[in-house]
Amino acid sequence: MTPPIGPVALRWIVLGAILLLWEAAPRLGWVPPVILATPSATLLAGLADPGTFARALLFTLTEIAAALGLAYGLGGLAGVVIGTSPLLRQALLPLVSSVYAIPFVVIYPVMTAWLGIGPSSKIWFAGFYGFFPVLLSVAAGVQLVDRNLVLMARSAGASPRQMALEVLLPAALPAIISGLRIGGALTTIGVVVAEMLAATDGIGFLITQNRTMFRTPEVYFGILLVLLLAGTLDTAIGRLERRTARWRPLREGEMRHD
User: Fold this and answer.
1) H-type helices in 28-49, by residue range?
2) Which residues are CB-contacts of 171 (< 8 A; sequence separation ≥ 6)?
3) pLDDT of 225-244, one tens digit each?
4) What's the per-residue H, E or C state across 60-126?
5) Separation CA 76–CA 132 (nearest Å)
């Protein structure tokens, strides 16, 4: 009996099929090459000018790192404060959820008017973009922490710092990780979109510049770099989730498998 295909093998099979279809579609005339460049042409375009793409990638990475600091730092802090206060939860969470539903791209022109088209506007815009999912996830995670754990910690004389770091943070970790994932993806998207709208450097700027000149392979190479950035960040957060899984307190009847 043939053993079933594992998830890793299936993933590579699907990826290979996508690449084959992508390569075949322009070559067979199904899609004009000016709209869809082949993977081979895309890679050749990137390898033909690695310095330009490397400089743009480094510039974008710097902006993403700064924006993540804002989104994770401010969003996490606000989430803990709001999540631990019943009054603030009732007063602010509906407002935050409503603001989160607004398409944030509409505020970028305001950002450029205040901060110009340099890195500052990209960092603040993307940080603001990722701030809300982090806040909402952390607040929800803290709110759902088992009250028995909190009561036990208070009975043992835990300080506010110990309560936050040794009880609330580990217990809310699954929700926090989810917020980091969503916030990280939106922050990356925010930086690239902002660079595409108004910038003088970065991967988004290169994508827009090459698109206006109909350099389709270069456009797709820039898109691949953006996908690489987002995938690398998601992989890093996944590893963090696995490393910190043992910090989470066990609930009644739950067993840990190390």
Assistant:
1) 39-48
2) 141, 145, 146, 149, 248, 249
3) 998 888 888 888 888 777 76
4) HHHHHHHHHHHHHHHHHHHHHHHHCCHHHHHHHHHHHHHHHCCCHHHHHHHHHHHHCCCHHHHHHHH
5) 10
Neighbours of 50 (CB within 10 A): 10
CA atoms of 153 and 196, how far apart (whole Å) = 49
pLDDT digits (tens, 9 = 90+) for 82-96: 887 888 888 888 888
Tokens describing residue 191 = 């930086």
* pLDDT for residue 244: 66
CATH number of 105-242: 1.10.3720.10
Decide: 79 and 139 in contact? Cβ < 8 Å: yes
DSSP annotation of 38: -
